[in-house]
UniProtKB/TrEMBL annotation:
Source superkingdom: Bacteria
PANTHER family for the chain: CHROMOSOME 12, WHOLE GENOME SHOTGUN SEQUENCE, DUF2461 DOMAIN-CONTAINING PROTEIN
Name of this chain's protein: DUF2461 domain-containing protein
InterPro entries: CHP02453, UCP028451
NCBIfam families: TIGR02453 family protein
Length: 224
C-alpha cells in the first residue's frame, strides 16, 4: 500500500516558494492532513516493523523520533522558518540516542535520504572507535567493502584529521579511516519513492545492510 499521497510532495514544493509563516498558517490543515499525520503514521509502522526482530525498538514511539519542521534560525543567515522535508531517527531512544544508532531518514520533494553510522560522539568515544578499528582492521575493511554495503551506500564518510594522533600514527598509514572524526554512510532515492508501495521495504533494506557496521561500532562505544 502507498503511505502518502502526491499532496505530500506538492506541499513542500509550494512551501519552497512560500517559506513564511503566513503561507504556512493558511495551509496548516493541509500540512496536518497530508504531511504531519501520514509521516507520523509511517514512522510508527516502521518502528513496529523493526521491533519484530529488534526488541530494542519495542516501546519506541514515533513522537520520540520525529524532528520538528521548524528550522533553528537563531544562528543562521537563512531565516526561512520551515524545513523542506520531514525527518526522523529510528533508534532505541529516538532523538535522545547518540550518533544515529539506527536509521535516520529524510523525505523531501527532491529526494529521499537514508543515513546510518557514527556522526557525533564525545572525545573519549572517538578514541575508542579508532582503537577498535586499529585492533580489528580486517573485520572493519570487510564490512566497508562488502558488496551489498558498497552497492547501497557506496562508502563511509566523515571529516578526517589531517594529522594522525600519535597513538594511531602507524595504524593510520594502513587504514586511513582511523583519521575520521565521524563514520557515517548514506544513500538517496528519487522522491517518487515516497509514493510507492515498497517504501518501507526499501528503508528496511537500508537498515539491514548498515546493521553489521553499526554492530561493529557498538562493540566499542555505548550508543543508548
Amino acid at each position: 500500500m502507498a503511505y502518502f499521497t502526491k499532496d505530500y510532495l506538492d506541499f513542500f514544493i509550494e512551501l519552497a516558494a512560500n517559506n513564511n509563516k503566513d503561507w504556512f498558517d493558511l495551509n496548516r490543515k493541509r500540512y496536518e492532513y497530508s504531511v504531519k499525520k501520514p509521516f507520523a503514521d509511517f514512522v510508527q509502522l516502521f518502528i513496529d516493523h523493526l521491533a519484530k526482530s529488534h526488541p530494542s525498538f519495542k516501546d519506541l514511539k514515533a513522537s520520540e523520533c520525529i524532528f520538528r519542521i521548524n528550522r533553528d534560525i537563531r544562528f543562521s543567515k537563512d531565516k526561512t522558518p520551515y524545513k523542506l522535508m520531514c525527518s526522523a531517527v529510528v533508534a532505541p531512544n529516538g532523538k535522545k540516542s547518540k550518533s544515529i544508532h539506527g536509521v535516520y531518514f529524510e523525505f523531501g520533494p527532491e529526494e529521499v535520504r537514508v543515513y546510518g553510522g557514527v556522526y557525533e560522539i564525545e572525545k573519549e568515544d572517538l578514541f575508542l572507535v579508532r582503537e577498535g578499528i586499529a585492533h580489528n582492521p580486517e573485520e572493519f575493511n570487510a564490512l566497508i567493502t562488502d558488496k551489498e554495503f558498497v552497492n547501497v551506500f557506496g562508502e563511509v564518510r566523515g571529516e578526517r584529521n589531517k594529522i594522525a594522533p600519535k597513538e594511531f600514527k602507524e595504524e593510520a598509514e594502513k587504514q586511513p579511516y582511523i583519521l575520521n572524526k565521524q563514520w557515517y554512510f548514506f544513500t538517496k532515492f528519487d522522491a517518487e519513492l515516497i509514493l510507492q508501495d515498497h517504501l518501507m521495504e526499501t528503508l528496511d533494506h537500508c537498515f539491514q545492510v548498515g546493521l553489521p557496521l553499526e554492530t561493529f561500532f557498538n562493540k566499542f562505544i555505548q550508543r543508548p
